[in-house]
Structures are given as structure tokens and as C-alpha cells.
Amino acid sequence: MSDKPETVGQDGVERLLAEAQGSASEAVDQGRIDSLLNQAQSALSSLEEPAAALPPGVTPFEFKDLQGAAAANETASLDLLRDVQLDLKIELGRTQMHLEDVLRLKRGAVVALDKLAGDPVDIYANGRLIARGEVLVLNDNFCVRVAELIAGDDGQA
């Protein structure tokens, strides 16, 4: 026998298995089985060799420690949201107008809306209805007091 194990393809393995199953009374050549086992062992050991066989510049894969950082014990504050952009829109009401009527609008024109004075106004954040509130005047500034928070997906603007 030579030092190098004999190479057997898939067909050879299937033939050996068929021979072993086909005749239970016949003994399979032990030398052939040893040869196949040696070949499998050498293939497995070649997979476990260090990265010496890798091309230059390629490093073997290493598992990193996936343990995250410890949770901060600080309390959350609005400072976390300081740089988050949010498109906030307060809708006093709606109306439908013809284009010619819109073009005739001048400073001081009054546009009738579909809501009455004192009705709640809709508050949208990034196009989604999030709340309803009431308009107030505080120190000559208009303000909106939130009266009801809206949950769910209703009301896309």
C-alpha cells in the first residue's frame, strides 16, 4: 500500500454501501474501510489546520464578544430628543375652494373653515394624527393645549 490514501468519489461510496447492504453474509474488505476512514480523517484534519493556507491579506474569522455595554442608570430626559427633527402641524380646520377663489385672496381675507370656534384642533406629527387640543391665547401668543391623545393608525394627512 502507498502512504497516500486512495481517493473515492461519491459513486464509489454508494457502491460500497450497496455491497455492504446487498450481501450481509459477505464481509466487506476491511482494508478498503480503513482507507476510507483515513481519507475522511485527513480531510477533517485539513479543515482544522491553522490559517497558514489562507491567501495573503486574508485573516481567519474570529468570534467577537457580543456582550453589550451595561445599561445606563440615568433617567431618560427630553435631552435625548433634542436633535430629532419632527414636523408638527396644527390643523384649525379645512375648506374646499376653487382655484379662482384662492387667487382672489388678499391680506385680511376671511376663509370659512369646517370647524366652529371652540372645536378641538387636530395635532399632526410627521403627517400622523397624534392628538386633539384647544387653541388658547397666552401673553398675546397662540397656544394649543393638548386635550386628547390619539392612539393607533387612524388619520394620515
Describe, in plain words, how this protein is organized in 3D.
The relative contact order is 0.09. The protein is built from three helices and four strands. It starts with 9 loop residues before the first helix and ends in an 8-residue tail after the last strand. A hairpin with a 2-residue loop joins strand 2 (121-125) and strand 3. It folds into two domains: 1-63; 80-149, Surface presentation of antigens (SPOA), CATH 2.30.330.10. It is an alpha+beta fold and 157 residues long. The model has no long low-confidence stretch (mean pLDDT 78). Helices cover 23% and strands 18% of the residues.
Concise overview:
The chain is 23% helix and 18% strand. It has 157 residues and is of the alpha+beta class.
